[in-house]
Amino acid sequence: MGTQFMIFITLGSQKFQFNRLLKAIDKLIEQGKIKEEVFAQIGYSDYQPINYKYKQFLDRDEFASMEGKADIVITHGGTGAIIGAVKKGKKVIAVPRLAKHGEHVDDHQLQLLKEFEDMNIIVACYDTEKLGDAYESIRDIKLQPYKSNQQTIISSIEKYLKSL
């Protein structure tokens, strides 16, 4: 019997919804593109997933346990969520929250994901319509392991973005 793969979705604890991402996952499961078990920590999103299990918030232990079981982590473009998953050796697909969808106050996650992508430590998915493609490609893609000096680069990028 093959290994049971699992996808963990984490949307952080910011007071913004990310319904767009949750709906895209539901659609991929419906279409039979995602077959493994999916669990989502949906945060402040008000969309309730139909085809997978979810909880609004997880405590630290639950979070660590879910992330530990997953081989793929799908998250928003938050630095903490991305680095946390990459450090644990997870393959990460990150989707930026966009201001025009009421998911954040600005679009800084776009620049952040571009940097992560350039370092080749995650798969960035800029359009939820392309989430299926990102998911298909992540199994075979060779990503770089995360190195702590990258945190320095990211911190300076974040500082720069905040100054804009």
Q: How many helices does DSSP assign? A: 6
Instruction: Give the topology string: H per helix, E per strand.
Output: EHEEHEHEHEHH
Low-confidence stretches: none
The number of distinct β-strands equals: 6
Strand order of the largest sheet: 3-2-1-4-5-6
**Helix percent band:** 25-40%
Number of domain modules: 1
Mean pLDDT: 92
CATH class descriptor name: Alpha Beta
What about the largest sheet?
6 strands, parallel
Structural class of the helix and strand makeup? alpha/beta
The gyration radius over C-alpha positions equals 15 Å
Strand content: 15-25%
CATH topology, by name, is Rossmann fold
Shape descriptor reads globular
Let me know the CATH homologous superfamily. Answer: Glycogen Phosphorylase B
Q: For the record, give the distance between the C-alpha atoms at the N and C termini, rounded to a whole number.
A: 52 Å
CATH architecture: 3-Layer(aba) Sandwich
List the helices and strands and how they pair.
Layout: E1 6-10, H1 19-30, E2 37-41, E3 53-55, H2 60-69, E4 72-76, H3 79-87, E5 91-95, H4 108-118, E6 123-124, H5 131-138, H6 149-163
Parallel strand pairs: 1-2, 1-4, 2-3, 4-5, 5-6
Helix pairs in contact: 4-6
